[in-house]
Structure formats: C-alpha cells, structure tokens
Amino acid sequence: MGLFAIKSAYLLGAQRVIAIDRFPERLRMAAENGNAETINYEQTDVQEALRELTGGLGPDACIDAVGMEAHGHGFFGTYDRVKQALRVQTDRPTVLREAIRACRNGGTISVPGVYGGFLDKVPFGSIVNKALTVKSGQTHVQRYMRPLLQLIENGSIDPSFVVTHRLSLEQAPQAYEMFRDKTDECVKIVLKPWEQPATRGEERVLH
Fold this sequence. Notes:
About 35% of the residues lie in helices and about 10% in strands. It is of the alpha/beta class. The protein has two domains: about 140 residues, NAD(P)-binding Rossmann-like Domain (Rossmann fold, 3-Layer(aba) Sandwich); about 45 residues, no CATH class. It has a three-stranded parallel sheet with strand order 3-4-5, covered by helices on one side. A two-stranded parallel ribbon has the order 1-2. A two-stranded parallel ribbon has the order 6-7.
C-alpha cells in the first residue's frame, strides 16, 4: 500500500515523497522504483529527520498506509502491545501518532491504512491546534479501477514492480510463511495455480 501511495502521490502532483519503513528491501524499492527519499525508523529519529528534510516545517501531507498492525518501538510500542494484550485497545496507532506530530500546520493526514476499532493516546488536540485535515476510507474501487487500468495501458504506471515472487498454488503455505516472516526479501507474492513456478533467472522462487 505504501509503495502504491508513493506512485499515486507523484501522479497527483507531488514534487517530493519521503518513505518511512524498517525493511531494507521495501526502502530500496521505494527509492529505486518510487523515486522516494527514505528513512529507516529503527535507525533514525523520524521527527528530527523530517524536520531537517523540510526546513523545520514538516511535510505538507502525511499518509498512514499501515493502520492497526503498525510496528512500534520504544515506550509507545510497548504501551500498545500491552494494551492489546489486555484487550483494552484494538489497534496500534503508532504511525497515526507519528503522522499527526510530523505534519506541518494546515497540512493533511490521509489514512488508507485500515483501523478496526478503538485507539488510545492519539493526540487529537494537535489536529485541532495545527488545523490539520484528516481524510480516510476504504478504496472506492468502482470509481478508480477504470482510470487506473487506463494508466497501466498507456504506460503511465506499472504496478508489477511490487511483485518479488511468483509461486505455484502448491507453495501457498510456504509463501504465506515467507511473507509473514519477511524472508528472502519478500514484498509481494503472486500465486499462479495454472503455471509452474518461474525459474530463478526470471523471478525468485521458493526452494
């Protein structure tokens, strides 16, 4: 979702995009295929880095493309895991908190990442005091499918860059395990029940 958000931002007129993640393969893909500047949040203070990259103002718009399963670290990461374990919080709003803190005054927070229930320690006061606009919702597939297909047909976008593995249906259990554990630089898997797995020279395959 984040990689496609980068592509979409440029299609809609963004001049600069900064991608934040912790997996080297996804950061590399964001830089090489998405023309994004990158931040590894496990190695860098995100807020400080964003202020430095934006002249102290913060980004014009921030996108939470993760949602309820965001990986956190430090105090709030532990806090969210404990709250979930005790069933007093359903989601982990780590990225949403970061986005609200980082976004410049008068900016926009977009939340395509899915949330399923109740959140805790979301700095809503910052939304009001910074005059932020918050947009969210599931993708309106009927509205966007046709224009997206036209963009693919005319060569404006090529979504296939996210596919790192093409596997047979028989390999599905191993494929899900690989995706879950983020092994072999797995980003996205396509299962093709009517074909044999591609050779190593064409696409990565699971051995």
